[in-house]
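cron nightly-structures :: item 1 of 1
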Amino acid sequence: MEPYLKVTSIEKTFGAVRALDNVNLLASRGECIAILGENGAGKTTLASVLIGLYQPDSGQIELDGSKISVTSPAAAIEHGIGMIHQHFSLFGAMTAEENILIGLPGEKRGAAARARIRQLCDDFDFTVDFNVPVASMAVGMKQRVEILKALFRDVSILILDEPTSVLAPTEVAPFLQGVRKLVANGCLVFFISHKLDEIREIADRVMIMRHGRVEGILPVATTPMTQMSALMMGQDASGQPAEKTEIKETRLDTVLAPKALVVSDVSLTAPSGAEILKDVDFTLHAGEILGIVGIDGNGQTELSEVITGLKRQTSGRILLGDKEISNSTITERISDGVGFVPEDRHAEGLVLSLSVEENFAFRSVGEDKFMSGRLISRRAISKIAEEAVKVYDIRPSNPKLNASALSGGNQQKIVLAREVARARNLLVVVQPTKGLDVGATQFVQDQIRAVAQSGVGVLYISTELEHVLEISHRVAVMAFGRISGIVDPQNTTLQDIGLLMTASPEEKL
């Protein structure tokens, strides 16, 4: 039988980055194919090519035996290809019916359209309240509206991007049941996910991607989790690394050092009811670098926000040394010696329209070192900035320039220098080397090591696993909002970490 969808030799580059590298795929209607891979593996890029958000540099797509050109999402819908993104494209002030019918000509509206929408609900056991605006709906119902919107447009291929990541635990099983009905009715479903337990439950085959390449397309029923994890992490089935990761030979033993941070049974529940963090529990010692790894969306960013005061935990305790800071404000935590390098240096770390020196005083201009009596001292701010610019080799070296005039690496140096100065007890860094070149990465890593050697506890959160393994004394792996395991980076394999990254809650180690 001829495949319904044929993808041949698809290539896509962004500058020097090869996002898709000779991707080939054959798929039939009435099957569910899971797409598994680390962050940056090419999963979403492939989906974006299929729905016309990106145009491939080379290769072709055939549908039902005919070559097609998908030039836009609208063209994709005309070919029967739809996608449900992690972030919904619904209008909150409109009802479900209005959202489903939006953009359609008048002849496709009316009583017949309403009857068909309700019939689709019956066919797939979707419960939707058609009398309220979408903004007042639970997340699970919004997702059903998105699927109905695609089904109403007669899609034969539906791409679901991390579809359960926004759902409350009670909403997952009904959602998966609905997906099974879609497949049973002849829809080809692509299920982008990192959750191996859901992949085992829903998918017929799993396509494993790494660095833009397809490492394998395997039957789910007969493929062990260890093999899926090994391919995802760049190893063969025996667990031998395909790409060797360099790890420092010597590490300081910090276990006997004083406790810098104690996180006890911390949970965070979203307004939708989804559990973002669940009973997170760990201890960070003074002088220790504790790496936190996991596939995006498993609670790492939210953990940093809870520790630094940007979000308030639903339950649990946080101790900074011997002092409880569970209910402390951001300002109080800064005063207690907590430094924070956020993931997005533009949106959260800097005010780009302010000068470099003004950014050094950002959020803590009232501290004594920036004051002269009761007045802000511009001279003191300039002196501190000039010294930091010199120590951190920030270029251009003029602290009067706006931060927007500097490169990404030098902007990161501003944030790092400011937060290191604050971090008397704890430094939390999130994706500190993201987007940096080799030289800037090495500099940032060296500065973080120096902070730890001064006796400060460092929480190092990153998806760049090689960097985490190189710099950390211990590595905690997060999955489903939990710590699924804490390992010694010298005595673990990438396969072990991959399994922990995809471990379901009942498999927590």
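cron nightly-structures :: done
The radius of gyration is 25 Å.
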